[in-house]
Protein backbone atom coordinates (compact mmCIF):
# COMPACT_ATOMS: atom_id res chain seq x y z
CA UNK A 1 0.00 0.00 0.00
CA UNK A 2 1.23 3.49 -0.78
CA UNK A 3 2.43 5.28 2.34
CA UNK A 4 0.65 8.42 1.16
CA UNK A 5 -2.76 6.71 1.26
CA UNK A 6 -2.83 4.89 4.59
CA UNK A 7 -5.38 2.23 5.36
CA UNK A 8 -7.78 3.27 8.13
CA UNK A 9 -9.01 1.07 10.97
CA UNK A 10 -10.68 1.88 14.32
CA UNK A 11 -8.17 -0.16 16.36
CA UNK A 12 -4.79 -1.59 15.43
CA UNK A 13 -3.45 -4.35 17.66
CA UNK A 14 0.32 -4.74 17.60
CA UNK A 15 1.11 -8.41 18.16
CA UNK A 16 -0.98 -11.51 17.59
CA UNK A 17 -0.08 -13.69 20.52
CA UNK A 18 -2.87 -14.82 22.85
CA UNK A 19 -3.37 -11.36 24.34
CA UNK A 20 -3.47 -9.51 21.03
CA UNK A 21 -5.85 -12.09 19.59
CA UNK A 22 -8.03 -11.91 22.70
CA UNK A 23 -8.19 -8.14 22.28
CA UNK A 24 -9.40 -8.61 18.71
CA UNK A 25 -12.00 -11.19 19.78
CA UNK A 26 -13.26 -8.87 22.52
CA UNK A 27 -13.57 -5.97 20.08
CA UNK A 28 -15.41 -8.18 17.59
CA UNK A 29 -17.73 -9.32 20.41
CA UNK A 30 -18.81 -5.69 20.62
CA UNK A 31 -18.96 -5.18 16.86
CA UNK A 32 -15.75 -3.16 16.50
CA UNK A 33 -13.39 -3.76 13.59
CA UNK A 34 -9.64 -4.02 14.17
CA UNK A 35 -6.42 -5.10 12.51
CA UNK A 36 -3.99 -7.44 14.30
CA UNK A 37 -0.41 -7.20 12.98
CA UNK A 38 1.67 -10.29 13.78
CA UNK A 39 5.08 -11.26 12.34
CA UNK A 40 4.64 -15.04 12.81
CA UNK A 41 2.81 -16.58 9.87
CA UNK A 42 2.08 -19.76 11.81
CA UNK A 43 2.01 -20.85 15.42
CA UNK A 44 5.02 -22.80 16.70
CA UNK A 45 4.01 -26.01 18.45
CA UNK A 46 7.53 -26.74 19.68
CA UNK A 47 7.56 -24.06 22.37
CA UNK A 48 4.28 -24.45 24.25
CA UNK A 49 5.12 -21.75 26.84
CA UNK A 50 1.98 -21.41 28.97
CA UNK A 51 0.05 -24.61 29.63
CA UNK A 52 -2.60 -23.43 32.10
CA UNK A 53 -5.67 -21.49 31.03
CA UNK A 54 -7.24 -20.30 34.28
CA UNK A 55 -10.85 -20.66 35.35
CA UNK A 56 -11.31 -16.92 34.86
CA UNK A 57 -9.88 -17.00 31.34
CA UNK A 58 -12.11 -19.97 30.55
CA UNK A 59 -15.13 -17.95 31.76
CA UNK A 60 -14.14 -15.27 29.28
CA UNK A 61 -13.71 -17.88 26.54
CA UNK A 62 -17.24 -19.06 27.38
CA UNK A 63 -18.43 -15.46 27.04
CA UNK A 64 -16.99 -15.43 23.50
CA UNK A 65 -18.49 -18.84 22.71
CA UNK A 66 -15.04 -20.50 22.54
CA UNK A 67 -14.75 -22.51 25.78
CA UNK A 68 -16.15 -25.75 24.38
CA UNK A 69 -14.06 -25.43 21.22
CA UNK A 70 -10.89 -25.10 23.28
CA UNK A 71 -11.79 -27.98 25.58
CA UNK A 72 -12.77 -30.30 22.74
CA UNK A 73 -9.37 -29.81 21.14
CA UNK A 74 -7.24 -29.83 24.30
CA UNK A 75 -5.04 -32.96 24.44
CA UNK A 76 -5.69 -33.36 28.19
CA UNK A 77 -9.34 -33.37 29.24
CA UNK A 78 -10.09 -31.31 32.33
CA UNK A 79 -11.23 -34.54 34.02
CA UNK A 80 -7.88 -36.24 33.38
CA UNK A 81 -6.17 -34.89 36.50
CA UNK A 82 -6.10 -31.95 38.89
CA UNK A 83 -3.07 -33.15 40.89
CA UNK A 84 0.59 -32.24 41.25
CA UNK A 85 2.89 -35.09 42.29
CA UNK A 86 6.19 -34.54 44.11
CA UNK A 87 8.65 -37.42 43.73
CA UNK A 88 12.33 -38.32 43.62
CA UNK A 89 12.04 -38.79 39.85
CA UNK A 90 9.49 -39.41 37.15
CA UNK A 91 10.10 -43.11 37.76
CA UNK A 92 11.05 -42.65 41.40
CA UNK A 93 9.37 -42.70 44.80
CA UNK A 94 6.41 -40.46 45.52
CA UNK A 95 6.78 -37.96 48.38
CA UNK A 96 3.37 -36.26 48.40
CA UNK A 97 0.73 -34.81 46.09
CA UNK A 98 -1.49 -31.74 45.98
CA UNK A 99 -5.03 -31.93 44.55
CA UNK A 100 -7.46 -29.36 43.21
CA UNK A 101 -4.73 -27.56 41.25
CA UNK A 102 -5.32 -24.51 39.05
CA UNK A 103 -9.11 -24.58 39.44
CA UNK A 104 -9.26 -27.80 37.42
CA UNK A 105 -11.67 -29.25 39.98
CA UNK A 106 -14.33 -26.54 39.57
CA UNK A 107 -16.57 -28.31 37.04
CA UNK A 108 -20.13 -27.83 38.27
CA UNK A 109 -19.08 -25.63 41.20
CA UNK A 110 -21.01 -22.43 41.88
CA UNK A 111 -17.65 -20.67 42.24
CA UNK A 112 -17.08 -20.42 38.50
CA UNK A 113 -18.83 -20.84 35.17
CA UNK A 114 -15.84 -22.84 33.92
CA UNK A 115 -13.02 -24.85 35.49
CA UNK A 116 -9.45 -24.23 34.42
CA UNK A 117 -7.99 -26.12 31.50
CA UNK A 118 -4.54 -27.57 30.85
CA UNK A 119 -3.84 -26.74 27.22
CA UNK A 120 -0.65 -25.68 25.40
CA UNK A 121 -0.51 -22.01 24.47
CA UNK A 122 -0.16 -22.77 20.73
CA UNK A 123 -3.59 -24.40 20.74
CA UNK A 124 -5.06 -21.37 22.54
CA UNK A 125 -3.57 -19.19 19.82
CA UNK A 126 -4.95 -21.44 17.06
CA UNK A 127 -8.49 -21.17 18.46
CA UNK A 128 -8.18 -17.41 18.85
CA UNK A 129 -6.69 -17.03 15.35
CA UNK A 130 -9.69 -18.82 13.88
CA UNK A 131 -12.04 -16.56 15.83
CA UNK A 132 -10.13 -13.45 14.70
CA UNK A 133 -10.45 -14.40 11.05
CA UNK A 134 -9.38 -11.91 8.40
CA UNK A 135 -8.65 -9.23 11.01
CA UNK A 136 -5.29 -11.01 11.47
CA UNK A 137 -2.43 -9.87 9.22
CA UNK A 138 0.55 -12.22 9.54
CA UNK A 139 4.07 -11.77 8.19
CA UNK A 140 4.08 -8.09 9.19
CA UNK A 141 5.12 -6.21 12.30
CA UNK A 142 4.69 -2.75 13.74
CA UNK A 143 7.90 -0.84 13.14
CA UNK A 144 6.88 2.54 14.53
CA UNK A 145 3.98 4.80 15.36
CA UNK A 146 3.20 8.46 15.81
CA UNK A 147 0.27 9.68 17.88
CA UNK A 148 -1.58 12.94 17.38
CA UNK A 149 -4.79 14.47 18.65
CA UNK A 150 -6.97 12.65 16.13
CA UNK A 151 -5.40 9.20 15.95
CA UNK A 152 -2.25 7.16 15.47
CA UNK A 153 -0.19 6.76 12.31
CA UNK A 154 1.39 3.30 12.32
CA UNK A 155 4.19 2.05 10.10
CA UNK A 156 4.24 -1.69 9.50
CA UNK A 157 6.88 -3.70 7.64
CA UNK A 158 6.96 -7.16 6.10
CA UNK A 159 9.78 -9.70 6.25
CA UNK A 160 10.65 -8.76 2.67
CA UNK A 161 11.09 -5.10 3.60
CA UNK A 162 7.82 -3.79 2.19
CA UNK A 163 6.28 -0.91 4.14
CA UNK A 164 2.67 0.10 4.65
CA UNK A 165 0.99 2.85 6.61
CA UNK A 166 -2.08 2.29 8.73
CA UNK A 167 -4.10 5.02 10.36
CA UNK A 168 -5.89 3.97 13.54
CA UNK A 169 -8.00 5.78 16.05
CA UNK A 170 -6.42 3.68 18.81
CA UNK A 171 -3.56 1.21 19.15
CA UNK A 172 -3.25 -1.66 21.64
CA UNK A 173 0.33 -2.83 22.07
CA UNK A 174 0.46 -6.58 22.68
CA UNK A 175 3.92 -6.88 21.17
CA UNK A 176 5.71 -8.51 24.06
CA UNK A 177 8.84 -7.77 26.07
CA UNK A 178 10.55 -5.87 23.24
CA UNK A 179 7.45 -3.78 22.61
CA UNK A 180 7.70 -1.06 19.99
CA UNK A 181 4.50 0.46 21.37
CA UNK A 182 5.89 0.65 24.90
CA UNK A 183 8.91 2.54 23.61
CA UNK A 184 6.71 4.80 21.48
CA UNK A 185 4.77 6.12 24.48
CA UNK A 186 7.93 6.53 26.57
CA UNK A 187 7.05 3.79 29.04
CA UNK A 188 9.67 1.53 30.56
CA UNK A 189 9.82 -1.61 32.64
CA UNK A 190 10.50 -1.43 36.34
CA UNK A 191 11.45 -4.47 38.38
CA UNK A 192 14.00 -7.24 38.58
CA UNK A 193 15.23 -10.45 37.03
CA UNK A 194 15.85 -13.71 38.87
CA UNK A 195 19.48 -14.80 38.90
CA UNK A 196 18.75 -18.49 38.34
CA UNK A 197 18.78 -19.89 34.80
CA UNK A 198 16.11 -22.30 33.60
CA UNK A 199 16.02 -24.71 30.71
CA UNK A 200 12.86 -25.98 29.01
CA UNK A 201 12.79 -29.14 26.92
CA UNK A 202 9.95 -30.49 24.80
CA UNK A 203 10.57 -34.15 24.08
CA UNK A 204 9.02 -37.36 22.85
CA UNK A 205 9.35 -40.33 25.20
CA UNK A 206 7.76 -43.55 23.89
CA UNK A 207 6.65 -45.81 26.72
CA UNK A 208 7.40 -43.36 29.54
CA UNK A 209 3.75 -42.93 30.50
CA UNK A 210 3.29 -46.68 30.83
CA UNK A 211 6.27 -46.91 33.20
CA UNK A 212 5.21 -43.97 35.35
CA UNK A 213 4.23 -45.22 38.85
CA UNK A 214 2.39 -42.05 39.94
CA UNK A 215 -0.69 -42.03 37.71
CA UNK A 216 -2.10 -38.95 35.99
CA UNK A 217 -0.89 -35.52 37.15
CA UNK A 218 -0.66 -32.06 35.63
CA UNK A 219 2.79 -31.53 37.18
CA UNK A 220 5.47 -33.97 38.31
CA UNK A 221 7.96 -32.18 40.55
CA UNK A 222 11.33 -33.93 40.82
CA UNK A 223 13.01 -33.30 44.18
CA UNK A 224 16.35 -34.85 43.33
CA UNK A 225 19.23 -32.60 44.49
CA UNK A 226 21.34 -33.78 41.54
CA UNK A 227 18.68 -32.71 39.03
CA UNK A 228 15.69 -30.80 40.40
CA UNK A 229 12.88 -29.67 38.14
CA UNK A 230 9.37 -30.42 36.97
CA UNK A 231 7.72 -32.11 34.02
CA UNK A 232 4.32 -32.86 32.56
CA UNK A 233 2.50 -34.28 29.59
CA UNK A 234 1.58 -32.23 26.54
CA UNK A 235 -0.71 -34.97 25.28
CA UNK A 236 -1.75 -38.53 26.07
CA UNK A 237 0.55 -39.91 23.41
CA UNK A 238 4.31 -39.47 23.79
CA UNK A 239 4.98 -35.73 24.05
CA UNK A 240 6.23 -34.19 27.29
CA UNK A 241 7.63 -30.92 28.60
CA UNK A 242 10.06 -30.27 31.44
CA UNK A 243 11.72 -27.34 33.20
CA UNK A 244 15.14 -27.89 34.73
CA UNK A 245 15.87 -25.25 37.35
CA UNK A 246 19.39 -23.88 37.74
CA UNK A 247 20.45 -25.26 34.35
CA UNK A 248 22.18 -23.16 31.70
CA UNK A 249 21.60 -23.22 27.95
CA UNK A 250 24.66 -25.36 27.19
CA UNK A 251 23.12 -28.31 29.05
CA UNK A 252 22.71 -31.68 27.36
CA UNK A 253 18.91 -31.98 27.03
CA UNK A 254 18.96 -35.76 26.70
CA UNK A 255 20.97 -36.22 29.89
CA UNK A 256 18.82 -33.63 31.64
CA UNK A 257 15.55 -35.45 30.86
CA UNK A 258 17.05 -38.80 31.82
CA UNK A 259 18.20 -37.34 35.13
CA UNK A 260 14.67 -36.10 35.82
CA UNK A 261 13.28 -39.51 34.95
CA UNK A 262 15.86 -41.33 37.03
CA UNK A 263 16.58 -43.81 34.23
CA UNK A 264 18.15 -43.95 30.76
CA UNK A 265 14.84 -43.70 28.93
CA UNK A 266 14.58 -43.35 25.16
CA UNK A 267 13.75 -39.77 24.20
CA UNK A 268 13.71 -37.53 21.16
CA UNK A 269 14.35 -33.86 21.85
CA UNK A 270 11.90 -31.69 19.91
CA UNK A 271 12.85 -28.22 21.21
CA UNK A 272 14.82 -26.43 23.90
CA UNK A 273 14.28 -23.01 25.40
CA UNK A 274 16.59 -21.36 27.97
CA UNK A 275 15.03 -18.57 30.01
CA UNK A 276 15.19 -16.52 33.18
CA UNK A 277 12.24 -15.36 35.24
CA UNK A 278 11.42 -11.65 35.21
CA UNK A 279 9.32 -9.56 37.55
CA UNK A 280 8.68 -6.47 35.43
CA UNK A 281 5.91 -3.87 35.32
CA UNK A 282 5.62 -0.94 32.92
CA UNK A 283 5.71 2.40 34.71
CA UNK A 284 2.75 3.51 32.60
CA UNK A 285 0.20 1.60 30.56
CA UNK A 286 -1.13 4.23 28.21
CA UNK A 287 -0.98 7.54 26.42
CA UNK A 288 -4.18 9.13 25.12
CA UNK A 289 -4.58 6.69 22.23
CA UNK A 290 -2.03 3.90 22.77
CA UNK A 291 -2.44 1.17 25.39
CA UNK A 292 -0.19 -1.67 26.56
CA UNK A 293 -1.41 -5.17 27.38
CA UNK A 294 0.09 -8.56 28.21
CA UNK A 295 3.87 -8.93 28.22
CA UNK A 296 4.27 -5.43 26.78
CA UNK A 297 2.96 -4.18 30.13
CA UNK A 298 4.06 -6.84 32.62
CA UNK A 299 6.06 -10.04 33.02
CA UNK A 300 5.96 -12.52 35.88
CA UNK A 301 7.45 -15.94 36.66
CA UNK A 302 5.35 -18.88 35.39
CA UNK A 303 4.80 -20.44 38.80
CA UNK A 304 1.09 -20.41 39.50
CA UNK A 305 0.09 -20.38 35.84
CA UNK A 306 -0.80 -16.67 35.75
CA UNK A 307 1.24 -15.64 32.67
CA UNK A 308 -0.95 -14.89 29.69
CA UNK A 309 -4.09 -15.22 31.83
CA UNK A 310 -3.37 -11.78 33.30
CA UNK A 311 -3.08 -10.50 29.74
CA UNK A 312 -6.49 -11.95 28.84
CA UNK A 313 -7.91 -9.80 31.63
CA UNK A 314 -6.12 -6.79 30.13
CA UNK A 315 -7.62 -7.55 26.71
CA UNK A 316 -11.19 -7.68 28.00
CA UNK A 317 -10.80 -4.53 30.10
CA UNK A 318 -9.39 -2.34 27.33
CA UNK A 319 -11.51 -4.05 24.69
CA UNK A 320 -14.92 -3.25 26.13
CA UNK A 321 -13.88 0.29 26.97
CA UNK A 322 -12.57 0.98 23.47
CA UNK A 323 -15.78 -0.46 22.04
CA UNK A 324 -17.91 1.74 24.31
CA UNK A 325 -16.04 4.85 23.18
CA UNK A 326 -15.94 3.95 19.48
CA UNK A 327 -19.62 3.03 19.41
CA UNK A 328 -20.49 6.34 21.03
CA UNK A 329 -21.99 5.29 24.36
CA UNK A 330 -19.08 6.31 26.59
CA UNK A 331 -16.76 9.33 26.71
CA UNK A 332 -13.07 8.99 25.87
CA UNK A 333 -12.30 9.65 29.55
CA UNK A 334 -13.40 6.06 30.25
CA UNK A 335 -10.16 4.87 28.67
CA UNK A 336 -8.12 6.52 31.41
CA UNK A 337 -9.41 3.92 33.85
CA UNK A 338 -7.66 1.07 32.01
CA UNK A 339 -4.29 1.67 33.67
CA UNK A 340 -5.72 2.43 37.11
CA UNK A 341 -7.71 -0.83 37.05
CA UNK A 342 -5.28 -3.25 35.43
CA UNK A 343 -1.84 -2.15 36.61
CA UNK A 344 -2.51 -3.00 40.30
CA UNK A 345 -3.75 -6.46 39.26
CA UNK A 346 -0.50 -7.07 37.40
CA UNK A 347 1.54 -5.85 40.36
CA UNK A 348 -0.28 -8.26 42.69
CA UNK A 349 0.19 -11.10 40.20
CA UNK A 350 3.91 -10.45 39.84
CA UNK A 351 4.42 -10.54 43.59
CA UNK A 352 2.32 -13.70 43.98
CA UNK A 353 4.31 -15.46 41.27
CA UNK A 354 7.58 -14.26 42.81
CA UNK A 355 6.54 -15.72 46.17
CA UNK A 356 5.76 -19.01 44.45
CA UNK A 357 9.21 -18.93 42.85
CA UNK A 358 10.92 -18.42 46.21
CA UNK A 359 10.66 -22.15 46.89
CA UNK A 360 11.25 -24.41 43.92
CA UNK A 361 12.44 -27.97 43.49
CA UNK A 362 16.07 -27.16 44.46
CA UNK A 363 14.94 -25.72 47.79
CA UNK A 364 12.70 -28.73 48.53
CA UNK A 365 15.15 -31.44 47.48
CA UNK A 366 16.72 -33.23 50.47
CA UNK A 367 19.67 -35.58 49.79
CA UNK A 368 18.19 -38.10 52.21
CA UNK A 369 15.30 -38.63 49.80
CA UNK A 370 17.74 -40.37 47.46
CA UNK A 371 18.95 -42.83 50.11
CA UNK A 372 17.62 -46.28 50.89
CA UNK A 373 13.99 -46.94 51.77
CA UNK A 374 14.52 -46.36 55.47
CA UNK A 375 16.27 -43.01 54.93
CA UNK A 376 13.53 -41.96 52.49
CA UNK A 377 10.75 -42.75 54.96
CA UNK A 378 12.52 -40.87 57.77
CA UNK A 379 12.72 -37.62 55.81
CA UNK A 380 9.60 -37.94 53.64
CA UNK A 381 7.07 -36.50 56.20
CA UNK A 382 9.15 -33.35 56.73
CA UNK A 383 9.62 -32.78 53.01
CA UNK A 384 5.92 -33.43 52.36
CA UNK A 385 5.00 -30.86 55.00
CA UNK A 386 7.40 -28.32 53.46
CA UNK A 387 5.85 -28.94 50.03
CA UNK A 388 2.33 -28.37 51.29
CA UNK A 389 3.34 -25.29 53.29
CA UNK A 390 5.31 -23.56 50.52
CA UNK A 391 3.50 -24.65 47.35
CA UNK A 392 -0.17 -24.58 48.35
CA UNK A 393 -0.67 -21.00 47.18
CA UNK A 394 0.91 -21.81 43.82
CA UNK A 395 -1.71 -24.42 43.01
CA UNK A 396 -4.64 -22.88 44.91
CA UNK A 397 -4.86 -19.23 43.90
CA UNK A 398 -8.56 -18.67 43.26
CA UNK A 399 -8.47 -15.60 45.50
CA UNK A 400 -6.25 -14.02 42.84
CA UNK A 401 -7.70 -15.71 39.75
CA UNK A 402 -11.38 -15.18 40.55
CA UNK A 403 -11.23 -12.76 43.45
CA UNK A 404 -9.40 -9.75 42.05
CA UNK A 405 -11.42 -6.59 42.32
CA UNK A 406 -11.62 -3.10 40.87
CA UNK A 407 -12.73 -1.62 44.18
CA UNK A 408 -11.60 1.98 44.41
CA UNK A 409 -11.74 2.53 40.65
CA UNK A 410 -13.27 5.89 39.74
CA UNK A 411 -15.95 4.08 37.70
CA UNK A 412 -16.93 1.68 40.49
CA UNK A 413 -19.34 2.62 43.27
CA UNK A 414 -18.31 2.09 46.91
CA UNK A 415 -18.86 -1.51 47.94
CA UNK A 416 -18.61 -2.82 44.37
CA UNK A 417 -15.88 -3.80 41.91
CA UNK A 418 -15.72 -7.54 42.36
CA UNK A 419 -16.57 -10.11 39.71
CA UNK A 420 -20.30 -10.85 39.85
CA UNK A 421 -20.68 -13.88 42.16
CA UNK A 422 -21.37 -16.87 39.98
CA UNK A 423 -24.12 -19.46 40.28
CA UNK A 424 -25.82 -22.10 38.18
CA UNK A 425 -29.43 -21.26 37.35
CA UNK A 426 -30.17 -24.72 35.98
CA UNK A 427 -28.24 -27.66 34.61
CA UNK A 428 -25.64 -26.19 32.25
CA UNK A 429 -27.03 -22.64 32.45
CA UNK A 430 -24.74 -20.16 34.14
CA UNK A 431 -25.89 -16.80 35.46
CA UNK A 432 -23.17 -15.39 33.21
CA UNK A 433 -24.91 -16.85 30.16
CA UNK A 434 -27.76 -14.39 30.71
CA UNK A 435 -25.57 -11.30 30.83
CA UNK A 436 -25.46 -9.07 27.77
CA UNK A 437 -22.39 -7.90 25.85
CA UNK A 438 -22.99 -4.40 27.24
CA UNK A 439 -24.12 -3.63 30.78
CA UNK A 440 -26.52 -5.90 32.62
CA UNK A 441 -28.99 -5.11 35.39
CA UNK A 442 -29.17 -8.20 37.60
CA UNK A 443 -31.79 -8.64 40.30
CA UNK A 444 -35.50 -8.18 40.91
CA UNK A 445 -36.74 -6.07 38.00
CA UNK A 446 -39.85 -5.06 39.97
CA UNK A 447 -37.79 -2.93 42.33
CA UNK A 448 -38.18 0.83 41.72
CA UNK A 449 -34.49 1.28 40.88
CA UNK A 450 -34.79 -0.99 37.86
CA UNK A 451 -36.90 1.46 35.90
CA UNK A 452 -34.53 4.29 36.83
CA UNK A 453 -31.55 2.44 35.33
CA UNK A 454 -33.43 1.23 32.26
CA UNK A 455 -34.55 4.81 31.55
CA UNK A 456 -31.06 6.17 32.08
CA UNK A 457 -29.59 3.57 29.72
CA UNK A 458 -32.17 4.42 27.05
CA UNK A 459 -31.41 8.12 27.41
CA UNK A 460 -27.65 7.56 27.11
CA UNK A 461 -27.88 4.97 24.34
CA UNK A 462 -26.08 2.40 26.49
CA UNK A 463 -26.83 -1.29 25.83
CA UNK A 464 -28.41 -2.72 28.99
CA UNK A 465 -29.84 -6.19 29.45
CA UNK A 466 -32.24 -6.93 32.31
CA UNK A 467 -31.61 -10.23 34.12
CA UNK A 468 -34.57 -10.87 36.39
CA UNK A 469 -33.81 -12.63 39.67
CA UNK A 470 -36.97 -12.23 41.76
CA UNK A 471 -36.42 -11.24 45.37
CA UNK A 472 -32.79 -10.25 44.89
CA UNK A 473 -31.25 -6.77 45.18
CA UNK A 474 -30.14 -4.94 42.07
CA UNK A 475 -26.59 -4.96 40.73
CA UNK A 476 -25.30 -3.10 37.70
CA UNK A 477 -22.80 -5.38 35.96
CA UNK A 478 -20.21 -4.13 33.51
CA UNK A 479 -19.46 -5.84 30.18
CA UNK A 480 -16.48 -7.59 31.84
CA UNK A 481 -18.78 -9.24 34.44
CA UNK A 482 -17.57 -7.00 37.29
CA UNK A 483 -20.11 -5.21 39.49
CA UNK A 484 -20.19 -1.44 38.93
CA UNK A 485 -22.91 -0.65 41.47
CA UNK A 486 -25.30 -2.38 43.85
CA UNK A 487 -27.93 -1.00 46.19
CA UNK A 488 -31.35 0.64 46.19
CA UNK A 489 -30.91 4.08 44.64
CA UNK A 490 -29.20 3.80 41.22
CA UNK A 491 -29.49 7.48 40.32
CA UNK A 492 -26.39 8.38 38.30
CA UNK A 493 -24.89 4.88 38.66
CA UNK A 494 -24.67 4.22 34.95
CA UNK A 495 -23.16 7.61 34.17
CA UNK A 496 -20.58 7.05 36.88
CA UNK A 497 -19.75 3.57 35.47
CA UNK A 498 -18.99 5.21 32.13
CA UNK A 499 -16.72 7.83 33.62
CA UNK A 500 -19.28 10.65 33.46
CA UNK A 501 -19.17 12.25 36.88
From TrEMBL:
UniProt GO molecular function: FAD binding; oxidoreductase activity, acting on paired donors, with incorporation or reduction of molecular oxygen, NAD(P)H as one donor, and incorporation of one atom of oxygen
UniProt cross-references to InterPro entries, sorted A to Z: FAD-bd, FAD/NAD-bd_sf, RIFMO-like
Domain spans labelled FAD-binding: 9-352
Cofactor: FAD
Residues in coiled coil: none
Transmembrane segments: none
UniProt KW keywords: FAD, Flavoprotein
Keyword Ribosomal protein (UniProt): no
Name by which UniProt lists this protein: 2-polyprenyl-6-methoxyphenol hydroxylase
Organism field: Nonomuraea solani
